[in-house]
Amino acid sequence: MAYGFLLPVAPITGLPCSGHGICIPSTVHCVMGCAGPPPMYPIKIKQYTCWWPPLALIPFGPLNPLKATVLTNFLPTMTFGDRFINHPSPCTNIVIHMCPCGKSVCPKPTPYPCSVLTIEDGGVGHTRILIAQSKTVFVTKLPIGRIYDPLGIGFPGFSWPCSSVVAYGSPNVLSS
């Protein structure tokens, strides 16, 4: 008897995550003086004007040889704590620089990548770490990764720093 919902198990295939946020490039991030970097805001605020598209779930570093002991359709299986490459945002928001021009100041709208405007991204994208939700199935003493598992701390769709979830799983290997 299964405990919970049966969901497809997630092998490490390089397929993308779900992505999160919405891109509204016409959004004015701030109005500031001519010099200096713009202020950065948390990802929970920026996800209403910035988009982090689906990005391949490629491991951040080399795989541990223990990953080869349990395979899902001949592929290593995702487990709790797996880290994947950073998740950058290709979207931009506008920063209006008020710069001197003659006897006055003129607005100079400048697009900035959202990854530069977000605290967690630091210009290169935020981290994605699998937080497996399985309570009954383990691989090398770690909960197994399944579809809809969050890639940040929290629960699916409301996790930090990444609100994405695992979007693809094995069609014939299920886990509760």
Which features would summarize this protein structure in a list?
single chain; mainly beta; two-stranded antiparallel sheet; 5% helix
Would you spell out the secondary-structure blueprint of this structure?
Blueprint: E1 7-8, E2 20-21, E3 28-33, H1 43-46, E4 51-52, E5 71-72, E6 75-76, E7 83-87, E8 92-101, E9 104-113, H2 114-117, E10 126-129, E11 138-139, E12 142-143, E13 153-155, E14 158-160, E15 174-175
Parallel strand pairs: 3-8
Antiparallel strand pairs: 1-15, 2-4, 5-6, 7-10, 8-9, 11-12, 13-14
Question: In a nutshell, what does this entry contain?
Answer:
The chain has helices at 43-46, 114-117, and strands at residues 7-8, 20-21, 28-33, 51-52, 71-72, 75-76, 83-87, 92-101, 104-113, 126-129, 138-139, 142-143, 153-155, 158-160, 174-175. With 176 residues, the protein is mostly beta strands.
Give a description of the structure.
The protein has 176 residues and is mainly beta. It has a single domain (15-168), classed as Tumour Suppressor Smad4, CATH 2.60.200.60. 5% of the residues lie in helices and 32% in strands. It has helices at 43-46, 114-117; strands at 7-8, 20-21, 28-33, 51-52, 71-72, 75-76, 83-87, 92-101, 104-113, 126-129, 138-139, 142-143, 153-155, 158-160, 174-175. The protein has a three-stranded mixed sheet with strand order 3-8-9. It has a two-stranded antiparallel ribbon with strand order 1-15. A two-stranded antiparallel ribbon has the order 2-4. A hairpin with a 2-residue loop joins strand 8 (92-101) and strand 9. The longest helix has 4 residues, at 43-46. The chain is elongated, with a radius of gyration of 20 Å. The mean pLDDT is 92.
